[in-house]
Q: What sequence folds into this?
């Protein structure tokens, strides 16, 4: 350590804190993250490979059992579907929001942000009312004469996909909105005056420039959807489990800890790898920056 | 585009803006503007901030639809034609090169929109880059170029499809002074080579005066005066233009009589007889008026062929080619004089009283009063 | 000549409002249902009654769950905003290689699925006796809310010129006085709004609460989960309505704080 570096550790220089103060201020953060986040997750991973004895058996059970494999595939498929639906529904809203002004802009923003900050349970419960045999959707379909018998909507995979899309849509809209907002209006004008129709302007200029937002939103939705628990647990069918509901069942009913830990390990490692690969495009702060 | 205009594509189009009006809620951004622009003309829109320059340009480009009035390009009514079908070139203030495309793709973009094949559009884009002296830069990205180079690329992109009108909204204001002068020359050269009609928005009057064939001075959405630089400078038609373009001395006077001559009483009681041509606007006896004269028209010392004023000097500023003398008339009105070839005048000091001759033909008389 | 009708924009507008209806209708639909006299949750709701609200307020179980959640959320808001602000301040003004580690660890609680953390904590807290206790909930929720506090505070602190503190110190203030008298007042609105967000995240948090709740110590989300899973009574729309009102109040509070803020 040089003399200067050593003194920076003990003393602050007006603009910068000393190394010691930095350490002390960061300490509570590191302590709680280590104790309440890193340790419990590592413990699960350790259990998954050390119990009942050092083995990869628990992971083998995940991939070799066709039932479990189907749960994994269903989870991936559901997350993909939810992500795709969110892009299709969310992009136009983000685009509209980025162009809107005044009261309209405020109204759209409230419609997007209020759900984000209201309870997931409230939103899931609302869907279970809507999907009931005598809920709004079936009543409306029967009143319109589209069906004489109520459909079974609740406890189906479609219910899970629709409700999850509803819950996760703001996570798609906000990053795309952020990306679109950072495109100056003049780019669209320049394209138009150079001869591009509105469709071409969108395809050649607006879409490529907003792509980081789309990627970021899609990852956020996809990663969250993979581990989503509440909605599949309340609206899904017990015959069509997702990985999170399977984990819950292993712990609460079967009490098979090593296997549950392996499932959590698969999920956590997969999600973390994706996050590392795309770490450059993920912009979490966008969610808070525009929160109100 | 019809065949007739396509064959003329080397030359510019004429533009007629008639009774153009644009309101944003209660704000009247443009208020009854008429401008007739000849084919191949270079016209500048000049005015203070918020005077409606951008709004006029946006209406010509098709980004704003006017509240009323019309815009014709070569006698075709384009008032409500979408911008992508107007076939105009436009250069924006902040370059607006598409950041995700190479320079060549940026310049080739309008050709792509017009359905040209890749080989041909690249060849033509290369040629356009060569006209702005950026041959060989095609593979770069916009952020790898300096501001001046980016603006030249934007220029190449705006002319590559040979539009007959080029619109520019303060295209040089993001550049520093030296670059700005280079670009002024570049744009003048392109205008001369291509014969394209140019509408150029600026709030830099020297830029407007040096570049444009005619200048439209705007204030509060209304045209104050349109004319060539010389006319605007030497005989501004109203007080606003007189004060807005260049430096001007103003003295409040009272009109005594109007006839073959106009006689006016100055604040310190003296009465001057001016030729009738001095009255830019009609004035009436008994009313207040403003006498205006450019500082460089004052001559040091009492001479003939004009009126003599005495000025108590307060500042003497050496300004290179000329000496700037600042002082007060007997009533306290500030008066400035720019005297060229200044070296022999060093004897003057603040506090001295100096006499100046105001040549009769340098005096301009306007109705009303300053503030 | 008239300006042409803009069909593209009309179509976009129609699509967008349809999606917005999809977003907002399921949320507001619970409000009329909470006043319905039907004992089963049929649609359309009929009549007007406040009995579901009084059932909620009169139930000892619902009250206990709500009170537990309030305590946990208040403590979480306090812990997260203090720990988060200290760490963010160190990150922005500090000098240490720990800052990089901090930025990586911060993303962890957002990326790692809540179910994974919930299961891990369930196991860990049971062995050390924190399961179903207020400290246990508070610790878990603090981890979950820290990233949000840090993002808010980072945005606010980045806007406070570091030279302001240097100026205060050149006037004789200590580093701590400089922070307390100059920086803190400037970022206080952001600090308050990050505490509000931490409160509502904790108050509504369902997954970790689901696993950490004991037989007696149940948070409000956990009680709601059981109610929805088992019998879905009309008390749920009443509670949902109250929670929506709470969210609206929190967002309004944050909005007011933001518009007051000097460092917007
Ligand atoms: N989209 C809009 N909504 C409301 N008012 C507007 C809008 N665009 C322009 N205005 C108003 O119209 C007036 C003219 O604006 P414009 O942009 O044309 O001025 P300008 O001459 O280009 O000024 P500057 O030199 O600052 O660019 C201003 O008062 C401006 O506030
Ligand atoms: Mg402008």
A:
């Amino acid at each position: 350590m040089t003399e200067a570096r050593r003194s920076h550790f003990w003393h602050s220089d007006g603009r910068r804190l000393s190394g010691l103060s930095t350490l002390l201020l960061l300490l509570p953060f590191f302590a709680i993250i280590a104790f309440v986040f890193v340790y419990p997750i590592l413990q699960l991973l350790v259990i998954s490979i050390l119990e009942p004895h050092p083995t990869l058996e628990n992971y083998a059970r995940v991939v070799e059992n066709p039932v479990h494999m189907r749960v994994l595939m269903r989870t991936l498929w559901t997350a993909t579907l939810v992500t795709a639906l969110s892009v299709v529904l969310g992009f136009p809203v983000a685009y509209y929001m980025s162009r809107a002004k005044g009261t309209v802009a405020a109204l759209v923003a409230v419609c997007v942000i209020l759900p984000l900050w209201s309870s997931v349970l409230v939103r899931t419960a609302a869907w279970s009312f809507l999907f009931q045999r005598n809920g709004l959707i079936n009543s409306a379909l029967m009143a319109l004469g589209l069906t004489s018998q109520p459909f079974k909507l609740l406890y189906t995979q479609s219910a899970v996909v629709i409700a999850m899309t509803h819950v996760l849509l703001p996570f798609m809209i906000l990053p795309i909105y952020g990306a679109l907002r950072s495109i100056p209006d003049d780019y669209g004008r320049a394209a138009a005056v150079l001869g591009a129709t509105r469709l071409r302007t969108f395809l050649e200029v607006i879409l490529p420039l907003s792509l980081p937002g789309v990627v970021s939103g899609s990852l956020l939705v996809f990663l969250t959807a993979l581990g989503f628990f509440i909605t599949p647990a309340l609206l899904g069918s017990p015959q069509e489990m997702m990985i999170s509901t399977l984990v819950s069942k292993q712990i609460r009913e079967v009490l098979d800890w090593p296997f549950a830990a392996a499932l959590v390990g698969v999920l956590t490692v997969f999600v973390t790898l994706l996050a590392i690969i795309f770490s450059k495009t993920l912009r979490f702060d966008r969610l808070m920056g525009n929160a109100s | 585009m019809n065949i007739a205009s396509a064959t003329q594509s080397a030359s510019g189009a004429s533009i007629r803006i008639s009774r153009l009006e644009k309101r944003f809620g209660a704000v009247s951004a443009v208020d009854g503007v008429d401008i007739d622009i000849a084919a191949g003309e270079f016209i500048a829109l000049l005015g203070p901030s918020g005077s409606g320059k951008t709004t006029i340009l946006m209406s010509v480009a098709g980004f704003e639809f006017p509240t009323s009035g019309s815009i014709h390009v070569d006698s075709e009514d384009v008032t409500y034609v979408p911008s992508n079908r107007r076939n105009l070139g436009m250069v924006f203030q902040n370059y607006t090169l598409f950041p995700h495309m190479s320079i060549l793709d940026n310049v080739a973009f309008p050709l792509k929109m017009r359905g040209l094949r890749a080989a041909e559009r690249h060849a033509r884009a290369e040629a356009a880059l060569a006209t702005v002296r950026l041959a060989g830069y095609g593979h770069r990205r916009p952020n790898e170029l300096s501001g001046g180079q980016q603006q030249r690329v934007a220029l190449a992109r705006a002319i590559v499809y040979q539009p007959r009108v080029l619109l520019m909204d303060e295209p040089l204001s993001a550049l520093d002074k030296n670059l700005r002068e280079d670009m002024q020359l570049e744009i003048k050269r392109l205008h001369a080579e291509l014969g394209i009609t140019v509408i150029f928005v600026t709030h830099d009057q020297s830029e407007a005066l040096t570049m444009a064939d005619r200048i439209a001075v705007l204030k509060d959405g209304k045209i104050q005066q349109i004319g060539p630089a010389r006319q605007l400078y030497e005989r501004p038609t109203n007080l606003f233009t007189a004060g807005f373009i260049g430096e001007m001395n103003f003295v409040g006077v009272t009109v005594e009589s109007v006839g073959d001559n106009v006689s006016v009483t100055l604040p310190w009681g003296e009465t001057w007889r001016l030729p009738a041509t001095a009255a830019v606007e009609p004035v009436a006896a008994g009313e207040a008026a403003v006498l205006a004269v450019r500082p460089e028209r004052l001559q040091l010392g009492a001479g003939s062929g004009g009126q003599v004023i005495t000025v108590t000097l307060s500042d003497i500023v050496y300004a290179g080619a000329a000496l700037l003398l600042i002082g007060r008339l007997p009533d306290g009105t500030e008066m400035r004089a720019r005297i060229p070839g200044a070296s022999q005048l060093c004897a003057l000091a603040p506090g001295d009283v100096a006499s100046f001759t105001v040549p009769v033909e340098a005096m301009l008389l306007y109705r009303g009063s300053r503030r | 000549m008239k300006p042409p009708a803009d069909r593209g924009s009309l179509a976009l507008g129609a699509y967008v409002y349809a999606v917005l209806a999809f977003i907002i209708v399921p949320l507001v639909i619970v409000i009329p249902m909470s006043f319905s006299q039907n004992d089963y949750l049929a649609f359309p709701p009929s009549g007007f009654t406040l009995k579901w609200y009084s059932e909620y307020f009169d139930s000892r179980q619902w009250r206990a769950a709500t009170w537990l959640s309030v305590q946990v959320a208040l403590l979480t808001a306090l812990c997260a905003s203090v720990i988060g602000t200290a760490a963010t301040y160190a990150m922005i003004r500090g000098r240490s290689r720990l800052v990089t580690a901090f930025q990586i660890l911060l993303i962890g609680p957002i990326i790692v699925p809540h179910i994974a953390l919930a299961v891990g904590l369930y196991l860990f807290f049971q062995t050390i006796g924190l399961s179903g206790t207020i400290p246990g909930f508070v610790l878990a929720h603090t981890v979950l809310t820290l990233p949000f506090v840090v993002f808010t505070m980072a945005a606010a602190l980045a806007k406070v010129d570091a030279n302001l503190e240097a100026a205060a110190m050149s006037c004789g203030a200590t580093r701590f006085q400089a922070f307390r008298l100059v920086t803190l007042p400037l970022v206080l609105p952001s600090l308050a709004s990050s505490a509000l967000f931490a409160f509502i995240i904790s108050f509504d948090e369902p997954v970790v609460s689901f696993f950490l709740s004991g037989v007696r110590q149940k948070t409000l989300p956990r009680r709601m989960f059981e109610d929805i899973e088992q019998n879905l009574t009309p008390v749920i729309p009443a509670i949902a309505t109250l929670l929506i009102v709470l969210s609206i109040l929190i967002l309004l509070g944050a909005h007011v704080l933001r518009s007051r803020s000097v460092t917007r």
Notes: The radius of gyration of chain C is 23 Å. The mean pLDDT of chain C is 89.
